[in-house]
């Protein structure tokens, strides 16, 4: 795509140019624009020589602002970088070009402000002359005015060509002026010519600036809150994300920006951000504490301090930072709970991976008066609403949860009651209505605990 920018009598023009055998429609805008973070493939300045000198003309980066309508030799005061940014040989009438790719890339990167270039040919004569952006040819032609063609690729986009050239009578987009040592306080910004060289022992050089605006690309920040099961501060394989964690974004001066919650897998994202410095705050979910911070690879460790807040991170134009993570774990005495279905399948008999909490009981240990092992009881269906097995299943899960580190204080009474009932009755005993109700109500409370409705909460 080729874009051309300019102003005629204050009205923006739309230009159509042929590139690679197809037409591209040029959007109307107030000034030439290039997204920050773009890669500049080439930047070619074109200028028309009317009076050649046969000398090498050098272009230098200007280091201070200036205005076409006011600049003079004295006000400019040599504000340029002496190193050469580009050059061309003024050896004949017609177009000459200079490569300014490196300088244009530096402008786009924000390394230097774009104050244009200083055009000189050293202490040599004769003076070379060129057409300026004030030049108007036969029939009002502007074809011979200087221009800068920048070919670039913006982040996530295709290659684009941008032609910067003054299209109208009023100063816009391209600004140029002669600065003469002979008339050190005279402004020559409205001259149809530019010059470089020495005239009567005095330098008579030129300034030219091709304006474009840098567009800031939106940035993004995010990644994950997770349950750090082993509390080592690192996202290990198999450690689950934490859903519903509140995440807040602030600027580094403390201004609130936005809030979100983590998804089902613990991920979050703040997008559409202006480039700048940000910090993130994670609200600690109930039953958890914050894990150790910054202990390893930044992409996999936890980044929050004891208050749940990260250090400031700087986002550049178009940057996406997906390394801001937060780890939480349940301390001993506050570990989460699991249901009978989990404990049935995670014994040494499988089929799921073995949970060594079973080793503290032994799957083969006889369960109270049942005549069966703990494992067998857990796999026996409470056919016909058998109150013994209903309570036994809830008790086994709650007891193993306690051994696994979950806080059982909220069901301490029910565990004691269950032990008494299971020590007094067997699976085949006929229970009175009141005793059966005691079995069922105790099982219901333990089931609430195992499912996380009371106590430290269910493991997600």
In short:
This protein has helices at residues 73-76, 101-109, 340-345, 374-378, 387-403, 412-424, 433-450, and strands at 2-5, 7-8, 11-12, 16-19, 22-25, 33-35, 39-51, 55-62, 80-90, 94-99, 117-120, 128-131, 147-153, 159-164, 174-180, 193-196, 198-199, 202-210, 213-215, 219-227, 246-251, 256-261, 267-273, 276-282, 289-290, 313-315, 320-321, 326-329. By secondary structure, the protein is of the alpha+beta class. Helix 5 packs across helix 6 (412-424), helix 5 runs parallel beside helix 7 and helix 6 (412-424) packs across helix 7 (433-450).
What kind of sheet is the major sheet? 7 strands, mixed
Structural class of the secondary structure composition? alpha+beta
Taking all Cα atoms into account, the compactness measure Rg is 38 Å
User: How many domains comprise the coordinates?
Assistant: 3
Inertia-based shape: rod-shaped
Kindly state the percentage of residues in helix. Answer: 10-25%
N-to-C span: 51 Å
Calculate the mean pLDDT score and round it. Answer: 89
State which percent range the strand residues make up: 25-35%
The count of DSSP E runs of length 2 or more, i.e. the number of strands, is 28
Low-confidence stretches: 1-30
How many H/I helical runs?
7
Task: Give a verbal description of the structure.
- This protein has 460 residues and is of the alpha+beta class.
- It folds into 3 domains: 214 residues, no CATH class; 111 residues, Immunoglobulins (Immunoglobulin-like), CATH 2.60.40; 111 residues, no CATH class.
- The chain is 16% helix and 32% strand.
- The chain contains 7 helices and 28 strands.
- Strands 1, 7, 10, 12, 13, 14 and 16 form a 7-stranded mixed sheet that branches. Strands 8, 9, 11, 15, 17 and 18 form a 6-stranded antiparallel sheet that branches.
- Helix 5 crosses helix 6 and helix 5 runs parallel beside helix 7.
- The longest helix is centred in the C-terminal third of the chain and has 18 residues.
- The N terminus is likely disordered.
């Amino acid at each position: 795509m080729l874009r051309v920018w300019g102003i005629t009598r204050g009205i923006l023009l739309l230009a159509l140019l042929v590139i690679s055998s197809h037409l591209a429609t040029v959007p109307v805008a107030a000034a030439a624009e290039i997204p920050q973070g773009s890669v500049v493939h080439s930047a070619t300045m074109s200028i028309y020589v009317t009076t050649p000198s046969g000398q090498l003309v050098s272009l230098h980066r200007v280091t201070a602002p200036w205005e076409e309508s006011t600049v003079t030799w004295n006000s400019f005061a040599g504000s340029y970088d002496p190193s050469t940014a580009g050059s061309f040989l003024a050896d004949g009438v017609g177009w000459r070009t200079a490569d300014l790719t490196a300088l244009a890339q530096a402008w786009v990167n924000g390394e230097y402000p774009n104050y244009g270039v200083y055009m000189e040919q050293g202490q040599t004569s004769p003076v070379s002359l060129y057409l300026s952006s004030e030049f108007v040819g036969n029939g009002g032609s502007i074809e011979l005015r200087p221009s800068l063609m920048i070919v670039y690729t913006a982040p996530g986009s295709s290659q684009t060509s941008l032609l910067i050239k003054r299209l109208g009578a009023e100063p816009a987009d391209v600004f140029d002026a002669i600065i003469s040592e002979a008339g050190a306080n005279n402004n020559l910004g409205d001259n149809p010519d530019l010059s470089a060289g020495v005239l009567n022992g005095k330098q008579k050089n030129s300034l030219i600036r091709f304006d474009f605006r840098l567009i800031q690309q939106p940035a993004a920040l995010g990644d994950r809150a997770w349950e750090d099961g082993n509390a080592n501060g690192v996202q290990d394989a198999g450690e689950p994300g934490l859903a519903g964690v509140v995440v807040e974004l602030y600027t580094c001066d403390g201004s609130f920006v936005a809030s979100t919650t983590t998804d089902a897998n613990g991920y979050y994202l703040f997008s559409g951000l202006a480039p700048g410095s940000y910090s993130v705050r994670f609200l600690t979910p109930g039953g958890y504490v914050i894990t150790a911070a910054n202990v390893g690879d930044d992409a996999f460790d936890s980044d929050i301090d004891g208050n749940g807040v990260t250090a400031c991170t700087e986002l550049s134009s178009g940057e996406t930072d997906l390394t801001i993570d937060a780890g939480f774990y349940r301390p001993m005495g506050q570990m989460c709970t699991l249901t009978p279905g989990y404990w049935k399948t995670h014994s040494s008999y499988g089929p799921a991976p073995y949970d060594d909490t079973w080793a503290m009981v032994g799957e083969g240990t006889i369960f109270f008066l049942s005549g069966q092992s703990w494992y067998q009881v857990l796999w026996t269906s409470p056919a016909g609403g058998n109150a013994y097995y209903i309570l036994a299943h809830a008790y086994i899960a709650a007891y193993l949860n306690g051994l696994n580190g979950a806080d059982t204080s909220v069901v301490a009474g029910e565990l004691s009651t269950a032990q008494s009932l299971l020590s007094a009755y067997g699976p085949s005993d006929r229970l009175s209505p009141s005793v059966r109700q005691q079995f069922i109500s105790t099982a219901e409370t333990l089931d609430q605990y195992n499912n996380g409705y009371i106590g430290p909460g269910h493991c997600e």
